[in-house]
């Protein structure tokens, strides 16, 4: 993937998030979001290393992952606004965005849950003769969830073509990583015999390079890799924090953290006029996307239970 | 009289118990910063040994609390979201709950589990909007769903002082309720004792938690038409069967509104008890979430899946007009 | 005709499905050696890619199965003990069950969970003797408790072929049941369709799994006294309400025997449905485990806590003699 | 603890188990047991390093642990036979044996569950100003349970005076450890910053020495230690295996495994006549214990729900 493509992705995610935050403020998005601002290089770099038929699982902070994997921003805005034209027909919202046709097995609102889902899907794809890999994204908080550690064991034992991508943004909500993680993050994966690397998660090119190596390894049948991407969350844990002051990060820390901006880091690699052109392109795309989403129909309340079961249940009672 | 909010009442109960009993301590995620506001001010007041921030390790910290209880302490755990109770179902139902009998009465496990924000939180979608009180009642863990600030205070106090595990569900829809309260009158409310939230003579509506407000509103709406009694059991398990019986004996008609799924939920239990004991003048009705409910994200769908005032109104009118079976 | 045991019928169903559909595979603990005998012979027959021994990592392998299902396979998980379902409650109720709705119908999760040896296993005590079918019915996961070898075969087949998650409870007390079966007649039994296990006219006894045998025995014992119909719903959720209605419409009296706890259990649901729909000639009764039951180890205590034939006999006599309420 | 005391303990456990197996065969014990035969050195060595007020949690294979911690064999036999005079008044049985007065917080039938219970109890004791430590026993299978790994994290983060004792007997039921554990067993604990040692679990003296060091460390406020005790299960996973052939261990493996017998290893350190004397003493003790148990009353079925709640529930309904 080219320099400009990577830039386009981080810029797209950034501006998508900034607009989504505005829509939360204006009430078009109900329930709030977990902004991805500051972490764009991880999604962009990782997904740039994937094929369209590769799989990912995402998190509560997942807009960046699905956009980088190719989701149509209009359908993503529409999902956040709970519209019928949304990715999940308005049934999932921010924390469950899924597009199976793009290999997106869904964001998951339960921290640590998706690691084993990605592992199972990757294992199944191999058994079906496919050469796809799966990537499971999660935060630093997730490495304290036993179910995720169990998944590391299965993936390593069975040499599953899965990548575990930990976005270490320093906090699980208000909990600093050093108060929550005894030992090291990469040490958790290494304990299961999984090669694990700690990389600069603010630079899309570095993330892309590390992911490409891990993907090659997985496709070659050598099993899982773990990447700790050191990053920083520029905004709130969740938009509710815009109203509640939780006071767990100092002003100095915030400004140091924000000083390494993935959009700037990648943007600096472009000629000024190319960058301006991409920015304009992104803005036009998002204008159109937001317009489409805002103009989409709301689902019919009478269909609230549609899709509850895959095999229909005639006698469903209220 | 000063106003007390439901959430503030829970916060006050925690503060009062931490103050009164040195064996009480709190643990959970982001409780120092008080992300949910449940524990606001308590870290500053009681320090790190009494207010313990945990990593995202729900299974371990739930069993950790059981161990601390076996060693004589009285832990209170905050769970940020209701589905975390699914994640620790084994630890509560199969560990904490079973120690007393399995050891032949050698020990007790006085742990309180509090979920501030159970049920739909408006826009948090499928995995954050459960209201699993019926599950805990079924397995026999004491289960409380307070409706008012005074009850939130008093039931949480009783839960902490109880020698068994107790789950306290604080519905999202109730957290903002504010009442005029004379603080001097705040006291423990015993587990297992319901209350008549509104007296009436034509029909008993059983409601819990935030649905009590809805039941009261519907009762007001029907005021010219019928005299609706609202019975709030406050505790799902043990259920105040005598209180329920006394009300139904007067009204001889029964409707339950229940924010859990229909099959084998709280509503099913109330109807079963009624069927066993009372001769009603009309078949009773349940207003519940549908079977297998998963709350869709879009607001109108989320609302459509929850039991609402319109459904309740219709059910009440149904039992009032109907003598025979449906 | 050859004899087929219940456990062997389950084993046969697995073998037949593995044979028929290459997407089916099994996973679980000690299933290669077939410690529970459920999977006897299958590893030799189908090899390591179809019969996967897992480490003791129930949460991960349950979600692993969900992932494999999302990718197009049809996993069947064996859980050695019923309380392991508590450990993976989140993974089933909050993950596997919710994917279809949350994704707006983009995917399906056809996973089957089998517990060979649910309920009391005689001497396995508190943490190994649960029978949590009502919990899964409440959250809306399809739930099956077969009573006979032919049903065990046919319901497991349907569970595997169903596109949603399904839990199959095979009660310890039923595993040894042997029936004369013409193998050529074995076929899928649809989920949600009950059967009349014994026709009668005075009272309907609803029973599931191993308790069907008990109900039949009690019906025989009462033969001179009363004509007892035994209705076996086979599926706890979805419940065959029409089948139940047809039976109760004839008998106008109802008793449920249920190996789950009383409060908000399967029995509560049956009584609730009856209260909503039928005008009975006597108040219905439930014979259940007590509220909050923990099975004590000592045999006589374990038996005392389970619903038994004597309790059922007494309950039937009660509804037969009684016209009014208790 | 002296050589002879350690011998007495391993011999007591061995003969207790052999008699218990007989009682399973004769039907006096219903439901079967998970025999501890072959692993006696672990329980004996570990508990010899503990004070009476120290705490332990045990497992499904727990008779050795509780006997070594001081349980009266008569009350243990009585428990296995479901008698009112049993440790748990007949309510718990083999997999739940507890004696709170001896610091035994119970055997636990759920693999991996007790690690966090022991951690919480040890933390609470320290908060209450006690200098006790807690030991959590578990098998090699348990290190694949996420909830146990979560407990390692809490113990390490909070420097809890708890010892994690893993009895690696090579199998979880029929599952060989190498097919189940990616990486190494001690590596799992080290990943959380917990010092971890792999020791010979067949020699009671070696187990005692390693445990003593770990206990000293914990009492000094330095936090948890992990001990992998390499051992071998001489008998069945559970007595049901005496009837069902599961075929997962070769004859050669069995005979190699059984060749290092803790009773013989410790017995060889005694003079022959001392050993004979201890053996006779143990036999007399167990004769008496079995006699007492067999003569004890069965609990009253009417009291089946006694102790269900600690705070009585008047309205309990059937
Ligand atoms: C199992 C679980 N525990 C707790 C929560 C509540 N919660 C949601 S996000 C979050 C913090 C997650 O931190 P991290 O994994 O570092 O991801 P980040 O939010 O930093 O992106 C918490 C505690 C949850 N959703 N799931
Ligand atoms: C969480 C859990 N999973 C499965 C079981 C069933 N089970 C009981 S013992 C056992 C094997 C345990 O192996 P290990 O931890 O090595 O202990 P060992 O039996 O070898 O002493 C299994 C699978 C259980 N009791 N708990
Ligand atoms: Mg984080
Ligand atoms: Mg083992």
Description:
The complex is a heterotetramer, with two copies of chain A (318 residues) and two copies of chain B (326 residues). Chain A has 318 residues and is α/β, with parallel strands linked by helices. Helix content of chain A is 43%, strand content 11%. Chain A has a single domain, classed as Rossmann fold (3-Layer(aba) Sandwich), CATH 3.40.50.970. Chain A contains twelve helices and eight strands. In chain A, the strands form two sheets. Chain A has a six-stranded parallel sheet with strand order 2-1-3-4-8-7, with helices on both faces. In chain A, α1 (3-26) packs across α2 and α4 (73-80) packs across α12 (272-294). Chain B has 326 residues and is an alpha/beta fold. In chain B, the strands form three sheets. A seven-stranded mixed sheet of chain B has the order 3-2-4-5-7-6-12, with helices on both faces. Chain B has a five-stranded mixed sheet with strand order 9-11-10-13-14, with helices on both faces. Chain B has a two-stranded antiparallel ribbon with strand order 1-8. In chain B, α1 (6-20) packs parallel to α8 (149-161), α3 (58-70) runs parallel beside α5 (89-96) and α10 (211-221) crosses α14 (309-321). Chains in contact: A-B, A-C, A-D, B-C, B-D, C-D. The interface between B and C is large, with 57 and 57 residues.
């Amino acid at each position: 993937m080219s320099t400009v493509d990577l830039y386009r992705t981080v810029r797209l995610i950034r501006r998508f998030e900034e607009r989504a935050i505005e829509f939360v403020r204006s009430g078009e998005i109900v329930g709030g979001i977990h902004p991805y601002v500051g972490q764009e290089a991880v999604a962009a770099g990782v997904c740039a290393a994937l094929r369209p038929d590769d799989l990912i699982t995402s998190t509560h902070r997942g807009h960046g992952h699905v956009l980088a994997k190719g989701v149509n921003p209009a359908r993503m805005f529409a999902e956040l606004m709970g519209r019928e034209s949304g990715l999940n027909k308005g049934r999932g919202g921010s924390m469950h965005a899924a597009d199976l046709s793009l290999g997106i097995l869904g964001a998951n609102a339960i921290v640590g849950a998706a690691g084993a889902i990605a592992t199972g899907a990757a294992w199944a794809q191999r058994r079906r003769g496919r050469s796809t890999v799966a990537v499971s994204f999660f935060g630093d908080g997730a490495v304290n969830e036993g179910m995720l550690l169990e998944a590391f064991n299965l993936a390593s034992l069975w040499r599953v073509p899965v990548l575990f991508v930990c976005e270490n943004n320093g906090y699980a909500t208000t909990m600093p990583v050093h108060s929550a993680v005894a030992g090291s993050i990469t040490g958790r994966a290494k304990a299961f015999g999984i090669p694990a690397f700690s990389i600069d998660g603010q630079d899309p090119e570095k993330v892309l390079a590390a992911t490409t190596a891990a993907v090659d390894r997985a496709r070659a049948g050598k099993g899982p890799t773990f990447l700790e991407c050191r990053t920083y969350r520029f905004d709130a844990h969740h938009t509710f924090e815009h109203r509640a002051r939780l006071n767990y990060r100092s002003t100095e820390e915030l400004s140091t953290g924000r000083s390494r901006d993935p959009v700037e880091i990648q943007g600096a690699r472009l000629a000024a006029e190319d960058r301006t052109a991409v920015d304009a392109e992104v803005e036009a795309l998002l204008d159109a996307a937001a317009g489409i989403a805002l103009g989409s129909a709301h689902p019919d309340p009478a269909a609230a239970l549609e899709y509850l079961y895959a095999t229909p249940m005639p006698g469903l009672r209220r | 009289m000063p106003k007390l909010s439901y959430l503030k009442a829970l916060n006050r109960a925690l503060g009062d118990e931490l103050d009164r009993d040195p064996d009480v301590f709190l643990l959970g995620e982001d409780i120092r910063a008080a992300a949910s506001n449940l524990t606001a001010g308590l870290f500053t007041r009681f320090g790190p040994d009494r207010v313990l921030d945990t990593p995202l390790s729900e299974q371990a910290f739930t069993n950790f609390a059981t161990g601390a209880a076996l060693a004589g302490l009285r832990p209170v755990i905050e769970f940020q979201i209701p589905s975390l109770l699914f994640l620790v179902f084994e630890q509560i139902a199969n560990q904490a709950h079973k120690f007393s009998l399995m050891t032949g009465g050698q020990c007790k496990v006085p742990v309180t589990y509090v979920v501030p924000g159970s049920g739909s939180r408006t826009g948090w979608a499928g995995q954050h909007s459960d209201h699993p009180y019926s599950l805990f009642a079924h397995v026999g863990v004491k289960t409380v769903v307070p409706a008012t600030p005074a009850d939130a205070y008093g039931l949480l106090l009783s839960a902490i002082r109880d020698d068994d595990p107790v789950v306290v569900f604080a519905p999202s829809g109730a957290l903002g309720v504010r009442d005029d309260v004379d603080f001097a009158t705040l006291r423990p409310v015993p587990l297992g004792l319901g209350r008549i939230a509104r007296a009436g003579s034509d029909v008993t509506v059983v409601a819990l938690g935030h649905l009590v407000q809805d039941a009261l509103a519907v009762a007001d709406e029907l005021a010219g038409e019928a005299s609706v009694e609202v019975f709030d059991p406050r505790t799902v398990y043990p259920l105040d069967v005598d209180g329920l019986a006394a009300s139904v004996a007067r009204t001889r008609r029964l409707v339950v509104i229940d924010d859990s799924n229909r099959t084998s939920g709280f509503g099913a239990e109330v109807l079963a008890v009624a069927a066993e004991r009372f001769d009603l003048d009309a078949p009773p009705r349940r207003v519940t979430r549908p079977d297998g409910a998963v709350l869709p994200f879009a607001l109108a769908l989320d609302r459509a899946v929850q039991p609402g005032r319109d459904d309740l109104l219709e059910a009440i009118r149904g039992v009032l007009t109907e003598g025979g079976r449906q």
